[in-house]
Amino acid sequence: MKLNISRDARPQVRTLLIATAITLALWFIPYAEILTYPFRIFVTFIHEGGHAIAALLTGNSVASLSVAMNASGETYTTQGGMLSQFFVSSAGYVGAMAYGALLLVLIRRAVAARIVLLGSAALILLLTTIYGVWKPLSSGLWAHFSLFTLVAGIVLSLGLVGIARYASARTASFFVSFLAVQCILNAILDLKTVFFLSSPFGGTGVQTDAVNMANATGIPSIFWAVIWIGIALMILSTAMRVYAVSKHSSAKQQDLPFEDPLEV
Fold it and tell me: Angle between the 33-57 and 82-90 helix axes, to the nearest 10 degrees?
């Protein structure tokens, strides 16, 4: 079965490649992390939100969610069975990759970028207010409350709403592509770090989701790191096929704002 990049997908693929190139270039520019810092915090919210959502879906409860200034995060949930722990522990790295892939699919399927941005803003705000503020304070877990989480969550939400409200359709679409790239690349980098920390050369004493699974199952943490890398790559592969590749077909999909406007 022959598969090619469909003609209507090429403008979106070009935009995605530009967003990826900008991201990679910023990695090599001194102090450019200042520019990418808000995106890193956004990805951390998605990572921790993945843990929280997985806990709820498996019948557990979430005590708190926090994001630190160094872009690390913590989510405290009740402990379920082995299968539940696997889903909750996996939902951080895999969740960030899945969210980036979801953004790609949504913009590929002509979902308005403004809707995607508003949905992302609503998600960040809900995670912040419910699990970053209300749950820890109402439960008396004052030590789990983080002022930075509250401020960062509100600023990110307002920023996403502002872009959705005031940016042009082309700019909003590019921004969604850039968010998707950030989620995907940061998930890959985090998984690479977890793999290294889980290897014999990574040392000990660093707490990761893979270590949590190793403690729960007795299976070495590197096994879980490899499993998550495999799942993440399958998600990315599937998303890219949906995003950029289609079967030969006479059906024509709706053009997205990435298309160059017709001259009149």
Answer: 160
